[in-house]
What we know:
Elements: H1 20-28, E1 32-38, E2 44-49, H2 51-58, H3 66-75, H4 77-87, E3 95-100, E4 107-115, E5 124-131, H5 132-146, H6 157-168, E6 177-185, H7 187-194, H8 196-212, E7 219-224, E8 227-233, H9 237-253, E9 256-258, E10 261-263, E11 266-273, H10 280-297, E12 301-302, H11 306-326, E13 330-339, E14 345-356, E15 360-362, H12 364-374, H13 377-399, E16 406-410, H14 413-418, H15 421-431, E17 439-444, H16 446-450, H17 452-464, E18 468-474, H18 481-486, E19 491-494, H19 496-501, H20 506-522, E20 525-528, H21 534-543, E21 547-548, H22 559-575, H23 583-590
Helix pairs in contact: 6-10, 7-8, 11-12, 13-15
Amino acid sequence: MPHVPAPAAPPASLVDPGVTGDHELLCALPIAAAVVSRTADGTLGLDAWNPRFVETITGGNPHLDRCAILRAAADGPIGAFIDRFLEHPGTAPDEMERQDGSGVRTRYFRLKMAPLPDHEGRGRGLLSLVEETQERRAQQHLKDQMLQCSLTGLPNRLAFTDAIEAIASDPARAEGYAVLLIDLLRFSRINQSMGSVVGDELLISFASRLVGGLREGDMLARVGGNEFGILFSLKGGASDAIAAAERVARLIEEPFTLSDLDIRVDGAIGLALLDFGEDGEEIFRHAQFAVKQAKANRRPTLYEPEQAIAARRRFSIETELRRALERDELDLAYQPLVELETGRVTGFEALARWHHPDRGNIGPSEFIPVAEESGLILDLGRWAMDRAARTLASWDDAEGDALPLSLSVNLSAIQVARDDVSAMVDGALRAHRLGGERLTIELTESAIVQDPMRATRVFEQIKGLDANLAMDDFGTGYSSLAYLQRLPIDLLKIDQRFIKGMLSDADSIAIVRAILGLAHALGMKTTAEGIESCELATTLATLGCAHGQGFYFSRAVDARRALAFWRAREEMALREGRIDSSPARRVRHGR
Ligand code: C2E
Ligand code: CA
Ligand code: CA
């Protein structure tokens, strides 16, 4: 076993004066260091050391026997480490960690060896000793600073997400905690108008008021310029989280008095529950997402996964759609159907519109599926049929004649399956004294697929009223050619998916050609949907498509603008000599 003998009787200076070179070297070193060597007989010895070395190994205690300490060290792993290094200076480890004492008295050391030039044929090395407590303390301080907001002294975002993560990774605690984020609204305006000193003061007052409202074990952090976060334990699940948010909301309701001014702040509060194993950052982002929603909702909002939000929205749309139908809050918009050859408007498609007082416009692609699922589509379909017929009759009245226009109304397959469609259509025509030829019913292929027998009957009844039948979104469904041939369909509406792709994609153009050929063979007319450019309109006209519809001509507009659009187009066609006489002109002359 290698052995570090105790240094010879302690010299007054504590430095072995024997080797001057070593002495100078050691005195120049700012760290605790000693020169070690292996003597010819194989024993390890300390040749020289600096005062720091002694101070370090004795912990600054002059009463400790450093010789005993060194002897003990040399007998243990330290001796082995030094020995190995001296024997194989190129390959042996040159660093080792060492711990002395226990508990708060624990001292950590890092031992490093560096080779020294050979001296009298002995292996030699420089042993340096760094006590790490100082260094660790400095690191901790730095970390504290990194984890702290310098203005409020609160933990910052990094510390906050670390704390969230620590709890989320503990199965015993994760589920019982929530994160609350408060976004101080209009804070930047206060900062700009009153100066950053007042802004800082506000943040500090705000923080201290929040601190006052915390329960034991809660953590408050400043997580952004105008954002604070609270990590708190729940006594009773999600409802407790909302109650906590309301408490915080009340807490910040009272104005803050700063520089003799009363300042009211408003905060959006978002909440997220912790989930075992979830990432701290992720939970934090959930809470941020909830803050965004809280701004829109104007009340504290708990984060829910997207599916839950979608389901809730669907549910509330259903309730509110029912109410909107009862209160007649839906509208129809009319999109012109244009004869591609002449540019004349021959009709309009009626499209349902819903302007929700709080949520703004909700599109039919969102509320029609909800209406279909809930059965509200029956009322909606009846309403649309009646409203469209009424509009057309009002146009006739306004122009003083039956206009050469027809209206297309969309009917859901569900209506075909469950309602008496022909009675409904008949009722609307009669109520507004319109001929059936003024109406086109648009159905999708799904209306046939579900119950072909019933569909056949309904289609024939509609034809019996002289109304027209259009197959909507043609090309996207699964109707068989046999039915197409057998059913009294007047018009195929080519789905906009194919029209949009036509100019760039050879498949789309082949499909459009095929549908046009098929329609021609079956004696049906065609309308191309989704025409957004002049180029598409002319290409389709060249291919033999009779009608088109799309943003290039016009979006769906309200009844008044739709009629004006028709009139303007008629006058233009007349001026340009594309038609001989216009009913609009004729009507006006007759007045
Ligand atoms: P749809 O019957 O295929 O109606 C055409 C849709 O394409 C309309 O969307 C229209 O605004 C849109 N559109 C027209 N031209 C263009 C264009 O150039 N580019 C693009 N990107 N879109 C264009 P909208 O109004 O959002 O209606 C969506 C769907 O909702 C309708 O598709 C229809 O299936 C359904 N819908 C609308 N109103 C009713 C209704 O009263 N009853 C029923 N059952 N369904 C309706
Ligand atoms: Ca349609
Ligand atoms: Ca369509």
